[in-house]
Input
Amino acid sequence: MIAHVGTTVQSDAIELAQDAWAAGYDAIAAVPPYYEKPNSWPDLIAWFRPVVDAAKGLPFFYYHIPGSTGVDMPIYDFLTAAQTSFPELVGIKYVSENWGDWVRCIQDFGQKTYMLWAPEPKLRALPFRPLRGVILAETFYAPTWRRMANLFKQANYSGAQQEQSWKQAVENVFGKYSGETKRAVYRQLAGMDMGPPRPFSHAMSDSDYPQLVADLQALGFFNQTWPSGPW
Output
């Protein structure tokens, strides 16, 4: 269990980190401060230092999402700077299209840092070892990711491509309808209410929901098979 403690206010992040440690979380994660932005990685590490200390040295995952935060310095430089001054840093959620930066990080730091690829296509990251995992925004894509990874490992590249294409076909179905379609599907899958939509989105229309379910059923979305064994 990883507690996200990122915020623009350092004192709030410290309090959240303290709560995460007290509640027994395994690690903490954070986006960078995105209002007053850091100018260098040493500045950001200094900003995070009391936050990590408040979590009593719990492992730390950094969320690299420059499209949302506006903080877009090379992660390779971050990992280089962190070797001596930020030992708690164990992983990066990498949400960027800077492919060259990603490859350098995998090659030089992938053995000891969880470089977690988040953009699509997920298949793009599989040739680069040691890939330690990917970020799935929705848990219902876990089976297709596992199937894709297993097929790639078996050198069945056409099968892996089919899994990636299937995932895109499902995304196209979700894109046909307005509103928070995936929250609606969680209610279908698990009877789970995910709460109100994020600002500035809106809830899916109840009248569209039956057709969404029918479109997903046509793709076999609700009867996916889980592969056995580690990926």
In short: The radius of gyration is 19 Å. The chain has a mean pLDDT of 92.
